[in-house]
Each structure stands twice: as C-alpha cells, then as structure tokens.
C-alpha cells in the first residue's frame, strides 16, 4: 500500500488526499497493540494452537461465569487471538481499543478515540510491567551507554534508529526524571525498576529508563501504523 510519509508537492496539489497519494494513518487493532507491546518487551509467547487463555483482569471486574486466570505466566502472554471471549465481558484492554462486540451476530470493528484508551496505556498495571521488561531488555543490550540505550529502545519500539534530536530530548528527559525520582526515593516511595534489575545504574536512573519506555508505549508512533 501507499506510504503515510508526507510529500510537500502532493500535499499542495491535493491537501485532502482525495487522489490517495498518501495512505491515511491508521491505529493498530486492539489485539495488535497488545501483541506489539508484549513482543517489544520480549514477553510474547508465539506458541500456536490449544485452548484459550485468561489473562489478568482488574480485581474489581465481576465476570458472570468466572474468569479463571491462566496460572502459567508464559501462557498468559500468548497472542491476543487466544484470549477467551465471553459474551457478557470483554477483556478490558481490547474493549478500550474497539474490539468487536460479541453480542452482535455480525460484529463490526469501529474506530474511536477516547480518553479511556490513553488512560489504559498510562495507568494499566500490565502496561507498566511491559515497560519494565522493555527497560530491562534495553539495559541488558546497551549497558550504561545512554545513547545506545535510547537507540535500542527506538529500534525495538519503532523499528528505526533514534534521530539526533530525539537522542538529545531523551537525554534531557532522563536527567530531569532521575532528579525527580531521587527525591521520591528520599521520601521512601516505591520505584518501578527494570525487569531484570540492572546493576549498572542507580535505582533512580534505572527507574527513569522505565518511565521513558512507558512513554514509548504510549506514543502515537507505537500504536499507529505508518
């Protein structure tokens, strides 16, 4: 298909893209977002076939008929196509990103943009866990080389190298965030650290890397297809 890359001449001639010179940006499907996050974090289980799985759900969510969470963590991290579907409840993350309604005999996949989608990626415990694993993966590959760490993150999350401007912006962010987290640490607050924990950086520096990874998974470039 056509690329989503901009073209100044085409945009001037056909700003509304009526001649389809540019592919419209499209958000990934709910299942693809989850699978991409698991893959980037190094947690995706590619196993094929077998019964459906029951990933973790919020404790406050009541499910008629029960939701027996799959005990094996590796099984829970299988591709989203294997998530068990109950008509009276949809897996929260997939529901937020417009999975088809199982109550309909001919379900359709609508495309919405709602605050709950951003909140799901920012506040969901699973998303933070994936960010921690991505941070651990980055640090294990790049060690204490900050530029290599940031570039590794962009390669994993975006499939490209980090630009010079991005390297500088992220370096500034990590410096500021490390200072903020150091103050939290002094107050005895808990930190979200990389998984596995890196011994090449201080806890505050490592937690700042987790925050950076969390930002990557919340970015438009991660959840939209180019």
**N/C terminus separation:** 10 Å
Q: Tell me the radius of gyration.
A: 20 Å
Helix content: 40-55%
Quick one: how many beta strands?
2
Number of helices: 10
Apparent shape: globular
* Helix and strand element order: HEHHHHHHHHHE
Biggest pleated-sheet summary: 2 strands, antiparallel
Any low-confidence stretches, pLDDT <50, length ≥5?
none
Q: Determine the strand fraction and express it as a percent band.
A: under 5%
Mean pLDDT: 90
Physical arrangement of strands within the biggest beta sheet: 1-2
* Structural class by SSE content: mainly alpha
Describe the structure.
This protein is mainly alpha-helical and 226 residues long. It contains ten helices and two strands; from the N terminus they run H-E-H-H-H-H-H-H-H-H-H-E. A two-stranded antiparallel sheet has the order 1-2. It is globular and about 55 Å long. The mean pLDDT is 90.
């Amino acid at each position: 298909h056509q690329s989503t890359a901009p073209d100044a001449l085409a945009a001037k001639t056909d700003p509304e893209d009526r001649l389809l010179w540019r592919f419209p940006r499209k958000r990934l499907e709910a299942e693809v977002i989850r699978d991409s996050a698991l893959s980037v974090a190094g947690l995706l289980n590619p196993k094929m076939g077998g019964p459906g799985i029951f990933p973790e759900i919020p404790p406050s969510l009541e499910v008629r008929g029960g939701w027996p969470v799959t005990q094996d963590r590796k099984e829970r991290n299988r591709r989203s196509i294997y998530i068990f579907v109950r008509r009276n409840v949809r897996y929260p993350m997939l529901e937020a990103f417009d999975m088809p309604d199982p109550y309909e005999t001919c379900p359709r996949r609508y495309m919405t943009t709602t605050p709950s989608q951003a909140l799901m990626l920012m506040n969901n415990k699973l998303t933070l866990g994936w960010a921690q694993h991505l941070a651990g993966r980055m640090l294990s590959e790049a060690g204490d080389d900050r530029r290599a760490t940031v570039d590794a993150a962009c390669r994993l999350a975006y499939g490209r190298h980090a630009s010079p401007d991005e390297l500088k912006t992220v370096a500034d962010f990590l410096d500021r965030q490390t200072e903020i987290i150091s103050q939290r640490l002094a107050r005895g607050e808990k930190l979200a650290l990389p998984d596995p924990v890196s011994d090449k950086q201080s806890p505050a520096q490592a937690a700042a890397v987790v925050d950076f990874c969390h930002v990557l998974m919340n970015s438009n470039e991660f959840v939209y297809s180019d």
